[in-house]
TrEMBL record:
A cellular component annotation (GO) from this entry: ATP-binding cassette (ABC) transporter complex
Name of this protein: Transport permease protein
Lineage: Bacteria, Bacillati, Actinomycetota, Actinomycetes, Micrococcales
One Gene Ontology molecular-function label: ABC-type transporter activity
Chief subcellular location: membrane
Keyword terms, alphabetized: Antibiotic resistance, Cell membrane, Membrane, Transmembrane, Transmembrane helix, Transport
Domain annotation ABC transmembrane type-2: ranges: 18-243
Keyword Transmembrane: yes
Similarity-based family: Belongs to the ABC-2 integral membrane protein family.
One Pfam match: ABC2_membrane
Length: 245
C-alpha cells in the first residue's frame, strides 16, 4: 500500500461525488429527511417514543444509505472499465479499496454531523451522553455501511444485483439489531445470530450514549464495529475484481 496512491484515489472519488449532485444529495440530505419524518410521526406522542427509537435509527439510516451508494458506485466503476484501467496502473487493490473507503468516510463525517445536529437540535432528541461521541459513532456506522458495500459489490454483476443485497444482508440486521425487540428478549437462536451482526453493536452503542452510559461500557461496542469495518475492507481488497464477467 502506498499512501500517495491511496490519497490520489480518495481525491478522485471525492471529485466525482462533487459533480454528482443527486448522489451527494442522497448521501447528505436523505438521513436528515428520514429523521425529520420520524420526529413528525411521533410529534403528538407524549410517551417519549422518539427518544427511544431515534438513536437506533440514527445508526441505521446512514448505514443503509452508504451501503447502497457505495455498492452501486463501485460496481458501476467496474462495469464501465474504470477499475480495470486503474488497476493497470502501479496501484494495489488495498490502495483502491482504502481510497474509496476514505472518500466515503469524508462524506460520512458530513452526513453524520448534519443528522446528529438536526436530531439533537431542531428535533429535540434527548441524550444524556456526549453529542460528540454520538456523532463519532454515527460516522463509524456510516463507514461500516461503506465497508460492507465495498465488499458485496464484488459479488454482483449488475447494479440491480447490488441492490438485491439490501434485503439479503441489511434488512435481517434491521430486524435483529434490537430496534423492534430487545436482543436479550429474542428467541435464543435469533439472539445468537444477532451477536454476530455488526449493526447490533452499532445500535447498542448509539442507544448507550443516549442513555448516558459510561464511555468505557460503550468502548467494547465501538471496538467491535471498528473491527467489522477493518474486516470488510480487507475482504473487499481480497475479492476485488477488475471487471464484471
Amino acid at each position: 500500500m502506498t499512501p500517495r496512491v491511496t490519497l490520489a484515489v480518495t481525491a478522485r472519488v471525492l471529485t466525482q461525488l462533487r459533480r454528482d449532485h443527486r448522489t451527494l444529495a442522497l448521501l447528505l440530505v436523505m438521513p436528515c429527511l428520514l429523521m425529520t419524518l420520524l420526529a413528525w410521526i411521533f410529534a403528538d406522542s407524549d410517551s417519549g417514543v422518539f427518544d427511544r427509537v431515534a438513536p437506533g435509527l440514527l445508526a441505521l439510516f446512514p448505514f443503509i444509505v452508504m451501503f447502497l451508494v457505495t455498492s452501486v458506485t463501485t460496481l458501476r466503476e467496474r462495469t464501465s472499465g474504470t477499475l480495470e484501467r486503474l488497476l493497470a496502473m502501479p496501484m494495489g487493490r488495498l490502495d483502491l479499496i482504502l481510497g474509496y473507503a476514505l472518500a466515503f468516510g469524508v462524506v460520512a463525517c458530513a452526513q453524520a454531523a448534519l443528522a446528529v445536529a438536526l436530531s439533537v437540535g431542531a428535533l429535540g432528541l434527548d441524550i444524556a451522553g456526549s453529542v460528540w461521541l454520538l456523532g463519532a459513532i454515527a460516522v463509524l456506522d456510516a463507514v461500516l455501511g461503506t465497508a460492507l458495500g465495498l465488499f458485496v459489490s464484488a459479488f454482483a454483476r449488475t447494479e440491480f444485483q447490488a441492490v438485491q443485497f439490501l434485503p439479503a444482508l441489511v434488512i435481517p440486521q434491521m430486524l435483529l439489531c434490537g430496534l423492534l425487540v430487545a436482543r436479550d428478549q429474542l428467541p435464543r437462536a435469533l439472539e445468537l445470530v444477532s451477536d454476530v451482526l455488526p449493526l447490533s453493536y452499532a445500535v447498542d452503542a448509539m442507544t448507550a450514549v443516549c442513555r448516558g452510559d459510561a464511555t468505557w461500557d460503550i468502548a467494547s461496542d465501538i471496538g467491535l464495529v471498528a473491527a467489522f469495518v477493518v474486516g470488510f475492507v480487507a475482504l473487499g481488497a481480497l475479492t476485488l475484481r477488475r471487471r464484471t464477467p
